[in-house]
Design goal:
The structure holds 3 protein chains of 3 kinds.
Chain A lengths: L2 E2 L1 H15 L3 E5 L15 H5 L4 E3 L4 H13 L3 E5 L10 H8 L2 H4 L9 E6 L14 H6 L4 E3 L4 H13 L4 E6 L8 E2 L13 E4 L4 E5 L3 H11 L5 E5 L2 E3 L3 H11 L2 E8 L4 H13 L8 E5 L10 H4 L3 H12 L2
Chain B lengths: L14 E2 L10 H7 L3 H26 L13 H8 L7 E3 L5 H6 L4 H8 L23 H16 L5 E6 L6 H13 L3 E7 L2 E2 L2 E2 L12 H4 L3 E6 L3 H16 L5 E6 L18 H8 L3 H11 L5 H23 L7 H4 L8 H16 L8
Chain C lengths: L2 E2 L1 H15 L3 E5 L15 H5 L4 E3 L4 H13 L3 E5 L10 H8 L2 H4 L9 E6 L14 H6 L4 E3 L4 H13 L4 E6 L8 E2 L13 E4 L4 E5 L3 H14 L4 E5 L2 E3 L3 H11 L2 E8 L4 H13 L8 E5 L7 H7 L3 H12 L2
Parallel strand pairs in C: 2-3, 2-4, 4-5, 5-7, 6-7, 10-11, 10-13, 13-14
Antiparallel strand pairs in C: 1-8, 6-12, 9-11
Helix pairs in contact in C: 1-7, 3-4, 8-12, 9-10
The chains are: A alpha/beta, B alpha/beta, C alpha/beta.
Chain lengths: 323, 369, 325
């Protein structure tokens, strides 16, 4: 089985689906001739030509808005927004249209688009290139939000997302793009949307995370001696795999949530609210959040202080255990 | 080395008129339309129907029987003339004032009342019909039309798209992005701007310092044309030509139909606050329906009796739709939760149950506080 | 003291500040000649002219973006976005610029703008005219988010927002615009940003709400009082920065919490409140926190919106649930 990086796995998913389904196209800034600024669309232009690997003008609202129109007229566009920070210009098209068209049309139209976005910090990038904006999209009804943490999931989830009849925001932790390789099957397979993955079983405390933080949490867990940690990689942020979360927390009675995004009104908040609603009696300690701060993510000389690291995760685990 | 530059602002785009406010038209121009007397009558009928619907909707809103409503009075020719040029396989992306266009494309008056009555079923476009839904956020639909037309081109279909928007929409970013994409990819789309002179209260001169809206097309690399939007013949002609060009691979066109909203922006607006009476009077003289009637009469195609009969039929047709609208069944609360996703996720199932339980505890409906 | 409704109180706040401070301008679609679609800016055009009561082209990104530029060069724009559903076209300017400029410039520039938007459901409005988007802005670092629930607070909070050196999203519950009148002092006063208000004192359960949910909360508190249940209603008034002290003090007293909001539940501001209570008052909780909220759908149009918006009955159900645990 080939060993691939996450970016190669995404490329492979795109290629696999474009070969299988002639209605799948990729579009975005620099995705054609250049193969994408991270090379996620490398080779697609050569294989599928300029009508299926489309270099668009520099206009995020334009990319998402026209992708919606294409989807209504029978195509399955995979639109790339070049960086997380540039999703904001497309926000109106995403929340006012992509998310709503099935509901507004009473099921007559639907929008099977995928919006792929390199996500998060840790690569010492420029301003507006290291954002973790998932909470905006998790709060918006009508969207699905997916974020893989390894090459295998990246390929399987992206294929699922392309086949999904609803709009999917597909975040790619750019810090993991080339961080490691993994066996990725050739050809067609899916990882289902809406299913978390139990990365590690444990009994003392549940750690819930996603994206690039999965590796950080694994690092932390390895440094902790004599503590049995259950690690959940959500993989899909909406719809949430609530069952996996609750089953685990019911067992351990303690939970830590780790995310890159700012803390206030985030997915971590929602997870705490859900756990509190459903498992208050089983909880032995308040759920702990280890998150980015309620600031913007700093530039490269300070970003390591902003992003949760293994030390902060350990501290969170120790806190929830010592209550 | 200084080149001599001449600015010819007035002539940047053509202005097309065939039928004057006095009902006079150059016979050669009319022949060139390729329309027959029955077409003239059909155009007239649609305009009268649209105005009848509009009057009725306004009255229903005033009586509390309809929600906030966006009237079209004065814009009948722009809508009817352009829609008459469409083929069934063409896509239509309306804004929220194109009642005449939607009706001509096969949506029922009942459906329109249903929408403006605050019922999501009004947005359910019949299967197979290539109309998209009413669009409220200004200018956003321009991108959808460009995308749909682009898809048609990529799939090798012979259809195109037309998108309706107003003068205010040309100030939004999505207008720029939509026209720019269409120009770059030579997409078969017609951008149909009804310049009705006001975005609620703000006059056209405050939307742009550009001499015309149509000339904005030139910067995107395609043709722009200004047309008398109250002249149903001219509107038909420029739209038909633009659609034919698009179908033939000639790319997009921006049409600016110069018209006037002879009424409120919506029923929540009071138009007397922001425009002078003389201006309104001046535009009333250019009424699109009146001028076609004058033309038909001059051609011996229309009589008092024809007029009386048409008005009666129009009233009856709209009255029937109103009766159907008012007899619509009570909504099921499940309608709130349906159609969010292809499959309902757990949180929506739970929340639907939560609402159903609550209603059940109060005899099946909301308690009266 | 004059009796004003919320629209009049906001109008009064704008006039008061525009008279006091010549750098304050209002700008937006139809805010000048027409006096705003809700008449919030009525007569400002007559008193202050077209340069301080500015009718802009129809472009939300344009309105907020140019307001930012004006603010950097010494003005204090109060920008109106005509309806909640039309905030998204300005989203990039709000989150990527207004919210960040002070931080990015290391305090060299700041953006003292107020973005006013009529907010929420309940007036039988068309699509995209009844949204509750506060969570998007609460999640964005660098913004303040203020939501009044009565005329007195509306005026005092808006004056505070205009004087605030940071960008403030000021959401006006349109359902309450003309719902009732209250005494509003003439001239200058402020209600501080970041301070909640105990709208109704109680000891058995804490009910946290804001905006148009306050009358619903008070209605529920009244009904519960008849059953000898004492409900403490907190009107947050500002959701960012949150008056966490008032919230936590109340929860420590009652041990039971109901959160009430119009917005969709998932990742709504109710989630943050639940998380904060979990962080800071976990051992005082006698029952799981209950959220009574809009559903995770879009707000339906007129025919069904009453079923979507939390009402007194749903609120009572939430209180009973938290009490019976």
């Amino acid at each position: 089985m080939p060993q691939m990086t996450l970016v190669q796995a995404i490329n492979d998913a795109l290629k696999t689906e474009m070969r299988r389904d002639p209605t799948v196209i990729v579009m975005g800034e620099d995705v054609g001739v250049n193969g994408g600024v991270f090379r996620a669309t490398e080779g697609l232009y050569q294989e599928f030509g300029p009508d299926r690997a489309i270099d668009t003008p520099l206009a995020e609202s334009g990319i998402v808005g026209t992708a919606i129109g294409m989807a209504i007229n029978g195509l399955k566009p995979v639109a790339e927004i070049q960086f997380d920070g540039f999703m904001a210009p497309a926000f109106d098209q995403i929340i006012s249209h992509a998310a709503r068209i099935r509901w507004r049309s009473r099921g007559r139209f639907h929008v099977p688009i995928v919006i792929r976005v390199p996500y998060g910090g840790g690569i010492r990038a420029l301003e507006h290139h290291s954002e973790a904006p998932e909470a905006y999209y998790v709060h918006t009804p009508g969207l699905k939000v997916v974020i893989p943490s390894n090459p295998y999931d990246a390929k399987g989830l992206l294929i699922s997302a392309i086949r999904d009849p609803d709009p999917v925001i597909f975040f790619e932790p750019k810090r993991l793009y080339r961080a490691f390789r993994q066996e990725v099957p050739e050809g067609d397979y899916t990882v289902p949307i809406g299913k978390a993955s139990l990365v590690r079983e444990g009994t003392d405390v549940t750690v819930i995370t996603w994206g690039a933080m999965v590796r950080v949490c694994l690092q932390a867990i390895e440094q902790l001696e004599g503590i049995s940690v259950e690690l959940i990689d959500l993989r899909t942020l909406k719809p949430l795999d609530i069952e996996t979360v609750l089953t685990s927390v019911a067992k351990t009675g303690r939970a830590v949530i780790v995310q890159e995004a700012p803390r206030t009104c985030s997915l971590a908040s929602e997870l705490i609210a859900l756990i509190n609603e459903r498992l208050l009696l089983q909880l032995q300690a308040p759920v702990v959040r280890v998150t980015g701060y309620d600031t913007h993510i700093p530039y490269l000389t300070m970003e390591q202080y902003y992003l949760p690291d293994a030390g902060r995760v350990k501290k969170g685990i120790e806190k929830v255990l010592s209550f | 080395m200084a080149a001599k530059v001449t600015l010819q602002r007035e002539s940047l785009v053509p202005f097309i008129q065939i039928l004057g406010p006095d009902g006079m038209a150059n016979p050669n121009d009319v022949v060139e339309l390729g329309l027959k007397p029955h077409d003239f009558k059909a155009l007239y009928r649609w305009m009268v129907l649209a105005r009848t619907f509009d009057e009725r909707a306004l009255a229903l809103q005033r009586q509390g029987r309809l929600g906030t409503y966006a009237p079209l009075l004065g814009q009948e020719a722009a809508q009817v003339g352009s829609a008459y040029a469409l083929k069934p396989e063409d896509w239509v992306f309306p804004s929220y004032r194109e009642h005449a266009v939607l009706a001509m494309r096969g949506q029922s008056w009942l459906q329109l009342f249903t929408y403006w009555g605050g019922n999501e079923e009004g947005n359910r476009i019949p299967e197979g019909m290539r109309n998209f839904m009413i669009c409220v956020p200004i200018a956003t639909q321009i991108l959808h039309a460009t995308g749909a037309a682009w898809a048609a081109k990529l799939k090798g279909e012979k259809s195109c798209a037309i998108v309706y928007f107003g003068d205010g929409a040309t100030s939004e970013g999505d207008f720029h992005e939509g026209l720019n994409f269409a120009g770059v990819f030579k997409v078969p789309v017609v951008f149909f701007c009804q310049n009705n002179q006001y975005a609620i209260s703000v006059p056209r001169t405050r939307q742009t310092a550009s001499e015309t809206l149509a000339q904005k097309a030139l910067a995107y690399g395609f043709e722009g044309v200004q047309v008398d939007g109250n002249d149903v013949f001219a509107v038909y002609k420029v739209t038909r030509d633009a659609l034919e060009k698009a179908r033939a691979g000639g790319g997009p066109t921006l049409i600016e139909a110069v018209t006037y909203r002879l009424t409120h922006h919506t029923t929540a607006d009071d138009w007397t606050r922001y425009r002078p009476a003389e201006e309104v009077e001046m535009w009333k003289q250019k009424d699109p329906i009146k001028r076609l009637r004058l033309y038909l009469e001059k051609q011996g195609l229309w009589s008092e009796q024809d007029e009386a009969k048409l008005l009666e039929e129009a009233k009856a047709e709209i009255a029937q739709a109103v009766a159907q609208y008012e007899a619509l069944p009570k909504r099921d609360v499940e309608d709130i939760f349906k159609y969010m996703y292809a499959e309902m996720p757990w949180n929506l199932k739970e929340q639907l149950q939560e609402l159903k339980d609550y209603l059940a505890e109060h005899g099946g409906d909301l308690p009266h506080e | 003291m004059p009796q004003l409704n919320i629209v009049q109180a906001i109008n009064d706040a704008l006039r008061t500040e525009m008279r006091r401070d010549p750098t304050v301008v209002v700008m937006g679609e139809d805010v000048g000649v027409n006096g705003g679609v809700f008449r919030v800016t009525e007569n400002l055009y007559k008193e202050f002219g077209p340069d301080r009561s500015i009718d802009t082209p129809l472009s939300e990104a344009g309105i907020v973006g140019t307001a930012i530029g004006m603010a950097i060069n010494g003005l204090k724009p109060v920008a109106e976005i005509q309806f909640d559903g039309f905030l998204p076209p300005a989203f990039d300017q709000i989150i990527s610029h207004a919210a960040r400029i002070c931080w990015r410039s290391r305090g060299r520039f700041h953006v003292p703008i107020v973005i006013r938007a009529p907010y929420g459901g309940g007036i039988r409005a068309p699509e995209y005219h009844s949204e509750s988007p506060e969570a998007y802005y609460a999640h964005t670092p660098g913004l303040k988010v203020v939501i009044p629930s009565n005329p007195y607070d509306a005026k005092g909070l808006l004056i505070a927002a205009i004087r605030d050196p940071d960008p403030v999203i000021y959401l006006e519950p349109k359902r309450l615009y003309r719902a009732f009148r209250a005494e509003v002092p003439e001239g200058d006063y402020i209600v501080p940003i970041g301070k909640a208000r105990i709208a109704h004192e109680g000891s058995h359960v804490t009910l946290i709400a804001w905006g148009a949910m306050i009358p619903v909360a008070l209605g529920a508190a009244e009904k519960m009082a008849a059953q000898n249940v004492s409900v403490e209603v907190i009107d947050l008034r500002t959701i960012v920065p949150l008056d966490v002290e008032t919230v936590i003090e109340s929860v420590k007293k009652t041990g039971r919490v109901v959160i009430l909001h119009e917005a969709p539940r998932t990742c709504g501001f109710g989630a943050e409140l639940a998380a904060l209570v979990n962080d800071k008052a976990f051992e005082y909780l006698q029952a799981p926190i209950v959220r009574v909220t809009g559903f995770d759908t879009f707000i339906p149009q007129a025919r069904l919106e009453d079923y979507y918006l939390p009402d007194v009955g749903r609120c009572l159900k939430g209180i009973e649930k938290v009490l019976s645990y």
